[in-house]
Amino acid sequence: xxxxxxxxxxxxxxxxxxxxxxxxxNFLQLPAYARTKKRGGFAVEIVGIKQIxxxxxxxxxxxxxxxxxxxxxxxxxxxxFFGPTLNETLIKAAGLTSLDVQRVFYTGxxxxxxxxxxxxxxxxxxxxxxxxxxxxxxxxxxxxxxETETLLRELGARHVEREPEEDPAIQAHFTFTKNxxxxxxxxxxxxxxxxxxxxxxxxxxxxxSVEFVPPSRTDILQxxxxxxxxxxxxxxxxxxxxxxxxxxxxxEELGEGEVFFxxxxxxxxxxxxxxxxxxxxxxxxxxxCEETFARxxxxxxDLSKKQKNQYDQVTRQLEAAQRRLADAExxxxxHGDDVVLAASMFIHTPHxxxxxxxxxxxxxxSLYGIYLIHRRMLEWSVENNVKWYNFWGIAKDFSxxxxxxxxxxxxxxxxxxxxxxxxxxYVPIRPILAKLLGALRA
Length: 442
Known about the structure:
It is a single chain. By secondary structure, the protein is of the alpha+beta class. The protein folds into three domains: 2-128 and 423-436, Gcn5-related N-acetyltransferase (GNAT) (Aminopeptidase, 3-Layer(aba) Sandwich); 179-266 and 337-421, Gcn5-related N-acetyltransferase (GNAT) (Aminopeptidase), CATH 3.40.630; 268-335, Methane Monooxygenase Hydroxylase, Chain G, domain 1, CATH 1.20.58. The protein contains 14 helices and 18 strands. The chain has helices spanning 12-21, 31-39, 88-93, 98-114, 143-154, 185-190, 194-200, 218-231, 241-254, 268-298, 305-335, 369-383, 405-412, 431-436; strands spanning 5-9, 43-52, 58-71, 75-81, 85-86, 119-125, 129-134, 137-141, 158-159, 174-179, 208-212, 259-260, 262-267, 338-349, 352-360, 388-394, 417-421, 425-428. Strands 7, 8, 10, 11, 12, 13, 14, 15, 16 and 17 form a ten-stranded mixed sheet that branches. Strands 1, 2, 3, 4, 5, 6, 9 and 18 form an eight-stranded mixed sheet that branches. β15, α12 (369-383) and β16 (388-394) form a beta-alpha-beta unit. α2 packs across α9 (241-254), α8 crosses α9 and α10 runs antiparallel to α11 (305-335). The longest helix is centred in the middle third of the chain and has 31 residues, at 268-298. It is elongated and about 100 Å long.
């Protein structure tokens, strides 16, 4: 097996073709990510496993983007986030297993890194699931997860016990994903909870629109994230200038159709007119009820229970509309005619749309800005044959009482399933030096 499998450097063009051939690749392994890191001044290498056939043809069985961050100025730490990606079809056709290719890959990568005098450790996150879930409930442990964990331990890797909510430098361990393969939008809509359907029904009815802004306007997303970080457990680094620049650069490298920065906006003048029209209709309905009451009483008959209930319902709806009108007038007085409610960033990878980050202004939650963003993106996903609608990271603690319980509660309104990765591992390349320089995560 080892005679025809080779760990080697590959070109960005090869990675691009590879990314188009596999069913699923994490966004941190895309060619655009490699270019983004290079633009940020980081060293990047693209490597993979090739099978060399007898006629000298080559099959690329695995590929990975490895980045290097400086450590104590002179040294560096290698990072492999959600790689390597495997071409399972070619691996199977070659009579090999995923474990065969992973073994050659990790062995080759460590040998490659040990030949670099300044690299002192490797941090890696395998794109392998530990367990399968139905919603938030474990269904089974995966064989590939067990095999990959065993292989990493054999190679000297140690598991990092910290979670992203404890250390923002740690990559997502748990994500939440909805499989929408083959579904039309009405089927997607029907598969969500009543809360989501009720919010989606506001589309076009509450003066809110969802607009796509270019990467150059990541300042909108940054301002929303800053407000969100102030009232939630979100780390403030997410709203930093450095993160905004990263999102901007990544968006530019991904290009149109591969990255989206949707912004939910309230057009207050339009909203005021919608609410005023609703109030006029409800006032007419209540007036009709009152006229019916007067005729009934004039005829000496008692009002029916149905008539009373109808009047009470219209009255409640009218009072609610009047409150919305007062709220809309206050919003317009304080914020003007064009009000940002929520903003997000989505990345399109092969057959998948990833909801990377998002924020919303809490005072406008009743206008469902973030839900309407998801409605628009789910429509786009159906139109573009997306299989996985990935809500990305969630906390390890699934309980509603946890600090991040509200995030999972929101995502569960779309009825998906938890995906649990193996997590983050580190491998000392130069153990003594890495320990002395604090380059090993606990």
